[in-house]
Hints:
Elements: H1 4-28, H2 35-53, H3 62-75, H4 80-97
Helix pairs in contact: 1-2, 3-4
Amino acid sequence: MIDTATLLTIVLMAGVTYLTRIGGYVMLRNRVLSARATAVMEAAPGCVLISVIAPAFVSRNPADLLALAITFVVATRLSMLPTVLIGVASAGLLRHFVG
Length: 99
């Protein structure tokens, strides 16, 4: 069972991610962006996701720390979507089996 605070966090993070995507498009749609500005706009949703997993850095739960390590390794090899999916799956499985 998911608690209300977790559900609210997920919904708010999804909303912020959506707003960064649509906000950038609406505000900058008639401008030509430099490569650097384009890279910043593409990295914004990833930064929001990082803010979600950052508390795991201070966790003492070995399952969370192992899932964080797996996600980090996967992120160096794959794109955003597979990284998120593998990170969520590994955290869920490790929490279930390791504790």
